[in-house]
Amino acid sequence: MTDMALKIENLKAEVEGKEILKGIDLTINSGEIHALMGPNGAGKSTLGEVLIGHPNYKITGGKILINGRDLTNATPEERARAGLFLAFQNPISISGVKISTFLRMAYNNLYPDEKMPLKEFFNMVKTVMKDVDMDESFISRSINDGFSGGERKRFEVLQMVILKPKIVILDEIDSGLDVDALKLVSAEIKKMHDQKVGFLIITHYQRILKDIIPEFVHVLKDGRIVMNGDNKVSDRIEDEGYDWIKE
Ligand SMILES: Nc1ncnc2c1ncn2[C@@H]1O[C@H](COP(=O)(O)OP(=O)(O)O)[C@@H](O)[C@H]1O
Ligand SMILES: [Mg+2]
């Protein structure tokens, strides 16, 4: 896999006229696992949404670069083609679109030259579904239609594995997952990490970081990264919360 660097430079963003991100600097390289932690309302999900190009969030300063290429104003599709993947915290239901159709379309959009035969593609999908313990019948269901919290999360992981991104942003992937499901999800993350995928794991709690040990931990408070460290920081947050970290 070609190496990739996602570089965020002095990024500022607002939502509904309110400044949420107040100058974020962060670089994620292939094969690195970063955790972004912080109290509720710090702006963690906002950063994720801004990185993937959600239209509700307005970038008011700074840059998003992928291998030096400026993607600050790129569309979500362009970002995905550049290798970014974001599993949303609250994925919207696109009713009427079957999982199978969605995945095939998304894959063909990303890899138009590959022309993988349908049968081969769905065999690949079914293998991953087994790995994350999704029933095969899911494949013909509509996206997120009546999915439980855990099923949504599994579907996010399914997309992540199938779409072969180079840098993955996971927002609260551990919420709504029981211990067994979390193990399966962590195993998929580890496999991708072995293939040098880079990760930004956004999480309020330290739970998933017991399985996936981040090399870098960043703490976001009120729209600013107030601490950069390693997993000792996340361990201390588990014991003491966020109050000891000053803005
Ligand atoms: N779509 C939105 N409309 C209005 N305010 C928003 C929206 N998204 C986020 N915010 C506000 O931005 C702040 C940061 O939210 P968020 O990024 O979700 O924090 P976190 O993920 O760290 O809990 C909060 O004050 C929240 O109310
Ligand atoms: Mg959030």
Structural account:
The mean pLDDT is 91. The chain has a single domain, classed as P-loop containing nucleotide triphosphate hydrolases (Rossmann fold). It has seven helices and ten strands. The strands form two sheets. It has a six-stranded mixed sheet, sandwiched between helices. The radius of gyration is 18 Å and the shape is globular. With 247 residues, it is an alpha/beta fold. A hairpin with a 2-residue loop joins strand 4 (57-66) and strand 5 (69-70). The structure holds adenosine-5'-diphosphate and magnesium ion (MG).
| Second rung of CATH, namely the architecture | 3-Layer(aba) Sandwich
**Principal-axis shape:** globular
Please give the CATH class: Alpha Beta
The biggest sheet amounts to: 6 strands, mixed
CATH superfamily: P-loop containing nucleotide triphosphate hydrolases
Adjacency order of strands in the biggest sheet: 6-7-8-3-9-10
The helix/strand series, from N terminus to C terminus, equals: EEEHEEHEHHHEHEEEH
> Which ions and ligands are bound to the chains?
adenosine-5'-diphosphate, magnesium ion
Q: What structural class should be given to the helix and strand makeup?
A: alpha/beta
The number of helical elements comes to: 7
Strand element count: 10
Q: Helix proportion of residues, in percent?
A: 25-40%
Question: In angstroms, what is the radius of gyration?
Answer: 18 Å
